[in-house]
Amino acid sequence: MQLNTDNPNSYHYETTHLSIEILGGIRLNHLDRLRVTISIQKQGTHLKLRHNLDLYNDTQVEKLVRKIAERLEIGTSVVRRTIQDLINELETYRISQLAELEADKVTVKTLTKAEEKEALKLLKSKNLLEETNKLIGKSGVIGEVNNRLLMYIIFTSRKANNPLHCMSLGSSGAGKTHLQSKVAELIPEEDKVEITVLSENAFYYFNRTELQYKLILIEDLDGAGNALYAIRELQSKHKITKTVVHKDTRGNTKTIHLTVEGPVCIAGCTTQESIYEDNSNRSFLLYIDESEEQDERIMQYQRLISAGKVHIDQEHTSRDLLQNAQRCLKNISVRNPYAESLKLPNAVFKPRRTNAHYLQFIEAVTFYHQHQREKKYDEETGEEYIETTIEDIKEANKLLQEVLLRKSDTITGACRNYFEKLKNYLKEHQQTTFTNKQISILLRIPLSTVKRYHLQLINTQRIQLREKDKTGRHLYEITNYEEYQQLKKTIATVLDEAILQL
Question: What InterPro entries would the database entry show (predicted)?
Fold first, then answer.
């Protein structure tokens, strides 16, 4: 007599007298009950009985025993012993399955003295961010020099009390998911949750503190459409609560609250910037490098892999070192004594939220430098904290220039990338006017996409209709080739002036 569980939807239990089938298997949760749908057949006959019951309910089991004995014409003592043996087999199987699930859970790695010493050496190095960026490159992240370090610092902020969030934006196949997944490899497994598809209520069924100080990676925000509200609440309030109706063991209806607490760091990828505007407002927007130079860097790396000339061991060593450095970072409060003197450029949109992100990023840079900062204590509360330095602000400004530039732009990132490519093409070919179809062919961009970009550029007065040619086609021209450089210079000037005042 042995329970056969090869088919997860139908367990079989055979004895000399009875053949028993458990339809739909058993649940591994709710250990206070053992509810089954059972089919019982007398050996050598077609007599069969089906029933649904809780095998831990003695009254239900006794009724089942009598019904089987009567219906299948078999002794009650035989049936009772068979049911008890079946319960024991199911209990043993359930306990073994739960033990396997526990074994599969990610365990927190304990660093050896040598690993900790090496990690602390990195965290105490003079040019920490520069050294970190080199290691990120050695770990297999090709190009994206600014984005990869920015993303790594944002992922590091998951350990702080006020984490940052990011969204990677770019066209299909540009490498958004690849960049996110490669940088995420530098974060310890126990500190991250990777998600491909999210149902509307998925977040509410995590344990109350299961997500605290975790990095949540969403491969494609299109697969999380129904959960976007919960994501926004986790980002803003660091907590989500859902009220549901629940029946207790006696059948009484009760209202219970499902609460999941943060803080969490959330990262996702999308091609559709405008659709996720509410979520993007809460995140740093990282635009993927889609230049020909980046294409060549990636293709060359692919060739080296194919030729067996990539040092995989070096990549693993760099990745392990950065993971261990993350394990050496502890939650500590950060205070910025220069915060009141810092200002954003006037051109930045939604300045309140952007200003909060700017200050939080500076704190994240300080947080990553915690092993180089003197620990101080608040005289009134006794809270331990470290302070931001001017160097931290300089490093943050350097990394955030592109982010702030995009936040100050009145056109979307995809349209900006197209517009800069268009400018370069016209300059190289000493051309002043162009048509939709001509640019679509020359830049190999779908005509519908070109028209959509041009409509956005006309509405923001970056291009204008000059005239119609003899065939009736619309000829366009650019109104100002230097507008983006001027905006970039304005932002750099404001940030530099703030540093000089400090």
Answer: P-loop_NTPase (IPR027417)
- CB-based burial label for 337 (10 Å; 0-12, 13-18, 19+): exposed
Residue 396 has φ and ψ, to the nearest 5°, of: -65, -45
Residue pLDDT, tens place only, 172-212: 777 788 889 999 999 999 898 888 777 778 888 888 888 89
Cβ(341)–Cβ(502) under 8 Å?
yes
Is 68 in the same domain as 178? no
Q: How far is residue 80's CA from residue 134's CA, in Å, rounded to a whole number?
A: 70
Say whether pTM exceeds 0.70.
yes
Where in the sequence is the domain holding 136, given as residue range(s)? Answer: 113-330
Q: Verify that 149 and 249 share a domain, yes or no.
A: yes
3-state secondary structure of 319: helix
Q: What is the DSSP string of 413-426?
A: HHHHHHHHHHHHHH
CATH at residue 453: 1.10.10.10
Average pLDDT in the chain: 86
Residue 202 CA neighbour count, 13 Å, CB half:
17
pLDDT one-digit tens code per residue, 234-273: 888 888 888 877 766 666 788 888 888 889 999 988 877 6
With vertex at residue 260, the alpha carbon angle to CA 255 and CA 265, rounded to the nearest 5 degrees, is 160
**pLDDT per residue as tens digits for the range 292-349:** 888 888 889 889 889 888 888 889 999 999 999 999 999 999 999 998 888 887 777 7
**Whether 217 and 301 share a structural domain:** yes
Domain count, the chain: 4
Same domain, 422 and 319: no
Residue 213 CA to residue 300 CA, distance in Å, equals 37
Q: CA-to-CA distance for 168 and 191, rounded, in angstroms?
A: 20
Nearest CA to 287 out of 150, 193, 410 is that of 150
Residue 161 shares a structural domain with residue 52: no
As a whole number of angstroms, the distance between CA 85 and CA 68 comes to 16
* Cβ atoms of 36 and 51 closer than 8 Å: no
474 vs 170, 254, 457, 461, CA distance in Å?
A: 29, 67, 15, 16
Pick from 191-195, 219-223, 271-275, 424-428: least confident: 271-275
